[in-house]
Amino acid sequence: MSNILDDTISRLQEIANALTEDIKQAPAYPVEKPDVLPLAIASVTDGNGRADDASGVHLFINVGVDFYFSRTNLAAAFKQINAVIPEYLKRLGGDPNLNGTAATIVFPVNFEVGQALYGSTQVQMLSFGIMVKYREDPTPTA
């Protein structure tokens, strides 16, 4: 499962990086200067699962895709945010199984906008909560 989940997160990151707003992938460590913004980070936030019967299990994993924008020019940050929201949602709609890494995205996709701290930099954040559904075969018991 971890490989499939890693592939899903990578695909969500690729979609974010392909946006026309020139989103950069997050570096391995928090940055100190806002000159590397905007950037996006995709990661698991939570999830749940259920066993239907002996034939399979459904996993519902929530992946957060957070976009960070510089607050140096707040009007410019909101202009970028307003462009990213519909474009990212359209791209998700065009690839609901995320290149085959998931059964499907569970729509609707939630998002919120607010201030955040990235490293020591005050940023404006757009955060998507994307529920991804997987169908897995059960693991046999011994």
Overview of this structure, please?
There is one protein chain. By secondary structure, the chain is of the alpha+beta class. The protein has one domain: Alpha-Beta Plaits (2-Layer Sandwich), CATH 3.30.70.1700. It has two helices and five strands. The longest helix is centred in the middle third of the chain and has 21 residues, at 74-94. The protein starts with a helix and ends in a 6-residue tail after the last strand.
CA-based gyration radius = 17 Å
User: What structural class do the secondary elements suggest?
Assistant: alpha+beta
Order of helices and strands: HEEEHEE
Biggest β-sheet strands, sense, barrel: 5 strands, mixed
CATH topology: Alpha-Beta Plaits
**What is the average of the pLDDT values?**
87
